[in-house]
Amino acid sequence: MKTFNYFQPTEIRFGSGRLSEVGQAVARWGKRCLLVTVPEFPPFAPLYARVKELLWDAGLKVAHFDGVVPNPTTEVITAGARLAKEHGVDVVLGMGGGSSMDSAKAIAVEATHPGTAWDYLFFRDKQPSEKTLPVVTATTTSGTGSQVTQVAVVTNTKEKNKSALYNSILYPKISIVDPELVRTAPPDVTASTGFDVFAHAFESYINPGGSAYTDLMALEAIGLVVDHLPKAVRNGTDLVARTHMAWADTLAGLCIANAGVTLPHGIGMAMSGLYPQVAHGRALAAVYPAMMRYTWQAAEPKFAAVARLLDPFLQPLSDGEAAHRSGEAVDRFLKSINLWTRLEDLDIPEDEVRRLAEASLVLPDYKNHPRVASMDEVIDLLKKSYRDEPENS
């Protein structure tokens, strides 16, 4: 067994009804709170009101920034940081999906440092310091794992670039994972975010930076997604399915915080930077079938293990045969959750495939893929993801 390190400082409060603890959790870290969410809309109005009441009851003063958008932009982060500074907040509560939690982390940096959050991306010499405001999260989706990671993804619309802050100072202090909060997510959001859970777990599993510990959690998360995501898509009120997906999301987040992601996430990040209308989970769904067929021979035993989780009928087959059919197994799973997607369906211009391929190799994720792709190979993978169903080769 190879040596490894594992680090996770976030206190996880998991289970139905745990939102009731949000006031006490936030009050441990400050007295003036910035609540960070997407804009209020009818299904969330009672939730926002309840959370504010819980915060007030805990003696907190609350400013509400509700300007978060999908694929949050540098402009969004600056607006939130401005409000945080105006109100002199000393703790940030990110409540929502990955966009809200990532925004909370980036706002916590920009509100306490010179310049903007974009100045503190993972590859910069300047990095967030201890001045960064503490962050607490309460997740309302099962997808990004942001509640337990040190990552904040931000989009720069002027540069048409999506990148990330990545620093251990960004781990949330406390994360509340209450499956009851996810029951309002519609089927398409449930499917898209749920497939992101699968991708996080799978990519950490095949990542050379993984370990015995992350492999254990990754396989558990993948099994939970396979068993419970289709149920959650069919019936969003199924609390058992929602609870298992919330746990799978948390496990997968713990995995990527220590192992990282690979080529598909590099492509997905590039896609959202160039085409902000594309949901992250759908971007992944579009490229995964071709990616599985491109990669399986480079990590045969692990592709075989995941293929058998996706399709128990592959159990008797050799690792080579099972791994070879992993692409077909992913195809069937995507179709079972109504997420079968081609790049054409995402309105990505066919003549911009090369541009997308070039952007996909900007982040270092592709270097951690079991089969490191060249530019021409990424272009070919994207072409196979564009319109027709890929062959099983």
Provide an overview of this structure.
The chain has 2 domains: 11-182, Rossmann fold (3-Layer(aba) Sandwich); 187-384, Dehydroquinate synthase-like - alpha domain (Dehydroquinate synthase-like, alpha domain), CATH 1.20.1090.10. 46% of the residues lie in helices and 10% in strands. It has helices at 22-27, 45-57, 74-86, 98-110, 187-206, 212-234, 239-258, 263-274, 280-295, 300-310, 319-324, 326-336, 353-360, 375-384, and strands spanning 11-14, 32-36, 61-65, 91-96, 135-139, 151-156, 161-166, 174-177. The protein has a 6-stranded parallel β-sheet, sandwiched between helices. Strands 6-7 form a two-stranded antiparallel ribbon. The mean pLDDT is 96.
| Approximate helicity band | 40-55%
User: What is the fold named in CATH at topology level of the largest domain?
Assistant: Dehydroquinate synthase-like, alpha domain
Number of β-strand runs: 8
Q: From N to C, what is the helix and strand string? A: EHEHEHEHEEEEHHHHHHHHHH
- The rounded distance between the terminal residues' Cα atoms is 32 Å
Q: Work out the count of structural domains.
A: 2
Low-confidence stretches: none
Average the pLDDT over all residues and give the rounded result.
Answer: 96
* SS summary, helix count: 14
- Percent of residues in β-strands: 5-15%
Q: Main β-sheet: number of strands, strand sense, barrel status? A: 6 strands, parallel
- Shape summary: globular
For the record, the CATH class of the largest domain is: Mainly Alpha
Structural class by secondary-structure content? alpha/beta
Going by CATH, the homologous superfamily of the largest domain would be Dehydroquinate synthase-like - alpha domain
- Just name the CATH architecture of the largest domain: Up-down Bundle
Output the strand order for the largest sheet: 1-8-5-4-2-3
Our Rg estimate from Cα atoms comes to 20 Å
What is the oligomer described by this structure?
A: single chain
